[in-house]
Design a protein that fits this description.
Helix content is 41%, strand content 13%. The chain is α/β, with parallel strands linked by helices and 259 residues long.
Length: 259
């Protein structure tokens, strides 16, 4: 019991730069208190003392603002940072080394009793603040769930899920960033190196349209010059009066709108 508690305190000191001492973590971190109470509630639940398990869970919620169902399975070195508003469902499983921030829900989308309704987090998963992971699927080892994301489908190992509904980012740049972050220390909140993938796609389309506008303007200018040289011929002017010979596409303004 005490070795497990020391392990929990050590992982908090490692991941939270605001933690100054073991005594501070032991007395002032609700995430640690919630996990200690959950272990007792889970023991009651496993031994068939369901009411006592639920009551212990309810007492922990009253003290910490963190609601963990006594049936949930939680691994070692799990860190619930701040923790207020965290909800963990009955069939949820949290792997070793995971980090969960405030406002997170590991919830279910099914009302069927006796089946897997809540998500499974692999090892070293980070779930950002106010994100919702809903359903009986798996979030792979080392994955990141960005703040305010709503995850409704599995996330592959090492990937990052952002947005509502969440979109999965699989990029070598993300892996390189995480490797660099690991050398410097703990990487928090499931932040991505770039922007939301939909915004990135929109920016690409805007830049492409801007390039087309430029090329069309240059073509009309060239046609106008050729037609000016051929005006002595009987053929009429081939450049329409409404042709865009100057660029009017404001790509910079549109890019700012999708940031």
């Amino acid at each position: 019991m005490f070795s497990r508690l020391r392990e929990d305190i050590a992982c908090i000191l490692e991941r939270d730069p605001a933690a100054r001492s073991s005594w501070e973590v032991l007395t002032c971190y609700p995430g640690l208190h919630a996990l200690v109470l959950h272990r007792r509630a889970h023991w009651f639940w496993q031994h068939g003392w369901y009411w006592l398990g639920r009551f212990t869970s309810h007492f922990g919620r009253f003290l910490t603002g963190i609601e963990i169902h006594p049936g949930a399975t939680i691994g070692r070195r799990v860190f619930i940072d701040h923790g207020m508003g965290v909800v963990v469902g009955e069939t949820a499983e949290i792997g070793d080394g995971c980090t969960i921030y405030q406002g997170v829900t590991l919830g279910g989308t099914s009302l069927s009793k006796g089946k897997k309704r809540h998500p499974t987090l692999g090892r070293n998963v980070i779930v950002g603040a106010n994100s919702q992971v809903l359903g009986g699927f798996t979030v792979g080892d080392g994955a990141r769930v960005g703040s305010n994301a709503v995850v409704l489908k599995p996330v592959p190992p090492g990937a990052t899920a952002v947005g509502n509904p969440a979109r999965v980012i699989l990029a070598e740049a993300e892996a390189a960033r995480e490797a660099a972050a690991a050398k410097m220390g703990f990487s928090a909140y499931g932040l991505t190196q770039g922007d939301d993938p939909v915004s990135q796609a929109m920016k690409g389309l805007i830049d492409n349209a801007s390039g087309h506008e430029h090329q069309i303007a240059m073509l009309w200018q060239a046609i106008e010059k050729l037609s000016a040289r051929a005006r002595e011929l009987p053929a009429p002017d081939c450049v329409p009066q409404d042709a865009h010979k100057t660029e009017q596409f404001d790509a910079e303004r549109l890019n700012r709108l999708v940031k």
